[in-house]
Amino acid sequence: MKIDKDKTEYERYLQEAHNRVALPVEILEEVVGEATGSVTEVKEKILKGEANQVFDITTKDRQQIIARVAKSEEPQFLQEQWAIEQCRRVGVPVPEIMLIRHFTLDSGLYSVCIQKKLEGDTLERGDIDMNSLGESELKGLMFQAGEVLSKIHSSEEPCGRDHRASKTSLSLDQITSVV
Known about the structure:
Elements: H1 2-21, H2 25-36, E1 40-46, E2 53-59, E3 64-72, H3 78-89, E4 97-105, E5 108-116, H4 135-153, H5 172-178
Antiparallel strand pairs: 1-2, 2-3, 3-5, 4-5
Helix pairs in contact: 4-5
């Protein structure tokens, strides 16, 4: 029972964190339209990350995108965009960033990143129950993840000015497609 209670408390914490980042819907819709040339048909809030408000969006013309919203004192996503491009250059499957926009409102500075959605599920905080996988499946996934990590570290470029590389989530499909 304690696990369920902790999960509920964590879900409540995530909801509160996301509510602090809330961007007016009209602005998000405007950025989605600018990035895709279409309008939102389905929008689902994803409550899994702690830093950004995240939406899984399908547009009217069936584009599948992820919209990420950050509220900070400085513009966000630019260093992450750089890191993603470095990963792409060495063959790591990463999302295409379609658009990054920044808005100053009375409540603060907001950054919005629109990226194409990648197929698959994240290994961390995803819907995959790692405990239900067999030992050979787990070893295979870890080997594949190691291959991807090796590619990431093969880049000759440093990991940004402050040496804190952005953390990106990799899906099972992405890892499998690399090996």
